[in-house]
From TrEMBL:
Keywords: S-adenosyl-L-methionine, Transferase, tRNA processing. Belongs to the TDD superfamily. DTWD2 family. Its EC number is 2.5.1.25. It comes from the Bacteria. InterPro entries: DTW, DTWD2/TAPT. This is tRNA-uridine aminocarboxypropyltransferase. SMART domains: DTW (SM01144).
């Protein structure tokens, strides 16, 4: 027998995160391009980010046929949030800056790189990157390297840089509750054995 699921956050009704999901305004438009393999992941942080931001859109796929229209948003400059040699560190907006359309691939690093390969228009976008030294709160997964963040954490850090002094911390509340719920479900002993430092 399957558990009743919340239709919005897709969590079991008994662990619904909706009361914790904020409804935040942002000057920046966030376009999340989610690899299909992430859709049913228990910790789908891209969905949480899209639900918590009024100016965000989540699209699932590997090849995005309507990418030209998605990237050509009047009044926004499209930038890809992805590391690379040409990536520019993000700066706080000045009064005259045109806001960004921040394009965020969501998937493992390997799958995100594949999405760029399959969508040359995406790969050709000017890239922006986060400040170094971000520490993930994602205690359930070993980070592939220093500064590796979950999708929602990367978006929060990006928006806090761009739109300082506005705080986007409320976006992390459902994420933290999700992690606490997973730890509780596995039990402290199992968590410490597999994830404790």
């Amino acid at each position: 027998m399957s558990r009743i699921q919340c239709p919005r956050c897709l969590r079991p009704q008994t662990h619904c995160l909706c009361p914790l999901i904020p409804s935040l305004d942002s000057r920046t438009r966030v376009l999340l391009l989610q690899h299909p393999s992430e859709v049913n992941h228990a910790l789908n942080t891209a969905r949480l980010a899209a639900q918590g931001l009024k100016n965000a859109e989540l699209i699932v796929g590997e090849v995005f046929e309507d990418l030209p229209a998605l990237l050509n948003q009047p009044g926004y400059q499209a930038r890809l949030l992805f590391p690379g040699e040409e990536a520019q560190p993000m700066q706080t907006y000045t009064a005259n800056d045109e806001p960004l359309l921040l394009v965020v691939p969501d998937g493992t690093w390997r799958k995100a790189r594949k999405m760029l390969h399959l969508n040359p228009l995406l790969a050709a976008l000017p890239r922006v990157t986060l400040a170094e030294g971000g520490v993930s709160r994602y205690r359930l997964r070993k980070a592939p390297g220093p500064g590796a963040l979950s999708t929602v954490e990367a978006i929060v850090q990006a928006l806090q840089t761009l739109e300082s002094p506005v705080s986007f911390e409320p976006l992390l509340k459902p994420f933290e509750a999700l992690i606490e719920g997973q730890i509780a479900a596995m039990g402290e002993e199992t968590y410490q054995k597999n994830h404790g430092r």
